[in-house]
């Protein structure tokens, strides 16, 4: 039963990572929105999560959740910094978006009224929690 619960949690984590990866590819490649530097760093953690967790599921290796949790927490740290910039909690002079490019504060950078940096943070935290849940009952 623990194995099934672990596989389900890992599958859900993979779905979140895959969905987030496909969403940012759509925004960048189809809509033509160039990401800011912090969005690029977040993608550097999200894209491998989709591959790593997918391979863990394919090979029925629940241990992949350990590595997924670490990657997700690192991505969440960058996303948290990004959210703090977005919310103005960090001085404005450190803004990540170039004046000539798209800004994460533009109205077209919101999904259901939620800014992309906040969605990234929520995704990373959900992936980390699901990966941790997948490890319950897994022997070391």
UniProtKB/TrEMBL annotation:
- What start and end residues bound the annotated signal peptide? none
- Looking at the UniProt record for this protein, which Gene Ontology cellular component terms does it annotate, in alphabetical order? membrane
- The record lists the membrane-crossing segments as 42-59, 71-90, 110-133
Protein's name in the database? Disulfide bond formation protein, DsbB family protein
What organism is this sequence from?
A: Pseudooceanicola batsensis (strain ATCC BAA-863 / DSM 15984 / KCTC 12145 / HTCC2597)
The superkingdom of the source organism is Bacteria
Q: What is the protein's membrane topology class?
A: Multi-pass membrane protein
Keywords associated with the record:
Chaperone, Disulfide bond, Electron transport, Membrane, Oxidoreductase, Redox-active center, Transmembrane, Transmembrane helix, Transport
A Gene Ontology BP annotation from the UniProt entry: protein folding
Intracellular or extracellular location(s): Membrane
Coarsely, its chief localization is membrane
**What family classification does the UniProt entry report for this protein?**
Belongs to the DsbB family. BdbC subfamily.
Taxonomy-wise, where does this protein's organism fall, top ranks first? Bacteria, Pseudomonadati, Pseudomonadota, Alphaproteobacteria, Rhodobacterales
* GO MF annotations in UniProt: protein-disulfide reductase activity
> Would I find Transport among this entry's keywords?
yes
């Amino acid at each position: 039963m623990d194995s099934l619960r672990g596989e389900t949690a890992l599958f859900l984590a993979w779905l979140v990572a895959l969905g987030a990866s496909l969403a940012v590819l759509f925004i960048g490649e189809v809509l033509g929105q160039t990401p800011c530097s912090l969005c690029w760093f977040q993608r550097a953690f999200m894209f491998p999560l989709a591959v790593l967790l997918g391979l863990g599921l394919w090979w029925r290796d629940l241990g992949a959740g350990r590595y997924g949790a670490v990657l997700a927490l690192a991505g969440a740290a960058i996303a948290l910094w990004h959210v703090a910039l977005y919310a103005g909690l960090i001085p404005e002079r450190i803004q990540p978006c170039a004046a000539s490019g798209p800004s994460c504060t533009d109205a077209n950078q919101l999904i259901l009224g939620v800014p992309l940096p906040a969605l990234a943070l929520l995704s990373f935290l959900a992936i980390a929690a699901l990966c941790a849940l997948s490890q319950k009952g897994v022997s070391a």
